[in-house]
Amino acid sequence: MRTLTASGFLLSLVLAVSVLRVDAAPTQAATFDSCSNIESAAPPVPSVSARRDILYSQDFSNADPITGLPPGWSVGPNASVPYFDTFRSTEVYGNELPALGVELPLAPLNYRVGGPHITVPDLADTLTLEFTLRLEMADAPFYVQFVPLTPGGAWLGHEKTLLELGGETMDGMRTYRVSFQPWQEAGPGRIWIVFGLSYKKALREGRFWVDDLVLSSGRSANSLEFYVTPQSAAVGTSIDLHVSSQTQDVTCTVFRERAEAELWVDPFVLTECREQDIPPESWKNGCAWPVSGSIETTGWPSGVYTVRLDNGDTTDFTQVFLHDDGSTAPPEWDEPVLILPLFTSMAYNDWGGRSFYSSATTPEVCFDRPVRHPGSDFFDTIVYLVRWLERTGQPYRVATDLELHEGAACLRDARLWIIPGHSEYWTRAMRRETEAFIARGGSVLVLGGNVLWWQSRIARADDPVEPGQVDRLVCYKYMADLDPYQEIDPSLVTTHWDEPPLNESATQLFGLSWRTGGMVNWGTASNCPCEYDWHDGHGGYTVLHPEHWIFDGTGLSAGAQLGQRPAIVGYEVDGVPHSWVLDLPVPTEGADVPPGTILLGHASAWNQYHPDNHGDAFMAIRETPEGGVVFHAGTTWWCWGLADDDAVQQVTWNLIHRERRAASLTGGTSYLSVEPNPSRGSVDLLWHGVSDAPDRVELYSVDGRRLNALSLEPTGEGAKTRWDFRDADGSDVPPGVYFARTSRGAVGFVRLK
Fold first, then answer.
1. What is the CA radius of gyration of the chain?
2. What phi and psi, each to the nearest 5 degrees, are found at residue 702?
3. Which of 55, 164, 158 is nearest to 115 (CA)?
4. CA distance 502 to 493
5. Which residues form the N,N-dimethylformamidase beta subunit-like C-terminal domain (predicted)?
6. Taking residues 746-751, what's their average pLDDT?
7. d(CA 121, CA 123)
8. Mean pLDDT in the chain?
9. Is 379 helix (H, G, I), strand (E, B) or coil?
10. Is the CB of residue 444 less than 8 Å from the CB of residue 434?
11. pTM: predicted TM-score of the whole model, two decimal places
12. In order of start, what are the domains of the chain with their CATH numbers?
């Protein structure tokens, strides 16, 4: 086995696109869009005119000398600040004509270079976009997107991504061809194509060049697509490859995702491939393509694996997730199991024409189809967690929410779960398994946002209520009144968790919910420049309770910013109803959060549910009576900070190694704790740390009234006292949330009835 360098396949994975040879003319199926890439330092001028009708072409030879843009092109939003500088590149990379170049500080998002509105005879026909691109962005997301429009220019649905690049510095221009269907319904219209930072956060300064753009009717040639079954499985399972290729021989290679992509299975050839039909309603019925070959995983470790196929013209890839098969010892207490959000990826995958987010919505989507952008979810955020764990030598194992739904032993035997990224869709079984795990003393670290938002169901092919051709993920969402379980079992209705008939907010389990959170650094949520934009200082958490043990070793003080430079706060963030007491946020009495929940970080957000669109993002933590910890990062982009932010890495390490940290406390580590929390009787107020122990502690209600002040008595390990829930006059205080406060900070706790 060998490790690939950053100039090899690893970058192809990070880009999450398909790569073609320079002499190839790739094709994509007629009912979806994908992307392909020809790599060349001096690419040829596109020759699509010989094969298809050209709808629009632009070689950028007629760019305005002042703006650097051709007629009909625009840069950025209507903003008063100069986010972009455009230029006609003097570096032509072998082309006869100059390219459009853009230099930009990648601080705001939703700033882009957009073409004109291009007239299309029939939006339901397949189109092919071809262009050359050079990108110089070391670590910034880059997108090519399109918007379908009516003949009059009104938007039809949301923007769609044609090409997603995870960040790279290219040596020269590369040619990309993308075949796609703009709209499901036939009829004339327009499309708008944009390059740059559309609706995604990017932070580094960079440059890109675009040249030789051609939009033509019809599809390209030499397609390759595939899917695997199962995508998530136990070690030792045979993984079947279902391939559609216009060439018979296809080469398969497998890589293991580590600090770098590591070659795991040497290339081997599948010899019986052919182009497959796309059946009707494949988004819910699957493709039913035959098995072209299999991969045996006996003896492999639990982890994330990337399967790459190459038919000589086109390459494509997807991920496989392997969990323990029960033959290994249970994980150690500080060996987390990563629960990756496979269901949410299913929900967003609109291969075949529909998803839970397509304009023509569907309540059912399936696994058995290719992924529109393979690896985009993994490489957008979760890859930074995997790379950090590998770099630090931290043992870990992998599962997905499918194993959580099924109550797999690989999760039940663990003591620490990590739920990273965007885990939006949860079945009732997933939630009940998580509740039981926490009740057994397990710890859960939610390193994501918009978590536990929609209840969903898994409907098997032989489901008596919802039979189908394959297993499906079901979520009626805004059509919940049509859900058959409204009459059969209302507890299984697929709607928001915090709405009737469920009424089980995510705050009850994790302390936070998207309902009062919202969006940060995401252009479609607010006008641009965005109200809560990195350019204006957003993207990090303001530190609260710096004395808390999760901040040990960070050097952060109250009011400091955590993770602002890598913008860990975004794009979807979770919050909780709260009030401010002594300059600290406290969950309100009706917030329905678990007792002992402490809010450790805060950021403002844009919220669609609040009358003035104001929301709040929080980090939340609680220590359970059973000895576990439940931490919610409150943001989908937490893992971005694991790339190179020391403080975010330290906080994450502290959370994983909580028991080791507690066992190695020294006099230099000091903090206040309350035990038991919650309590029906008295509570012990404990100061941990000898050198700087305060001499008293004050007790406050959530409305800021000081109730009592008690002396702290020195002990061999710090200081302590006991409060019997009486105020200074000797009267009992009612059940509720209270604060113990010293000169070093405050700790919230709960008195029960």
1. 27
2. -70, -20
3. 55
4. 8
5. 274-643
6. 76
7. 7
8. 82
9. helix
10. yes
11. 0.77
12. 25-217 (2.60.120.260), 224-323 (2.60.40.10), 337-514+565-600+619-658 (no CATH), 671-751 (2.60.40.3080)
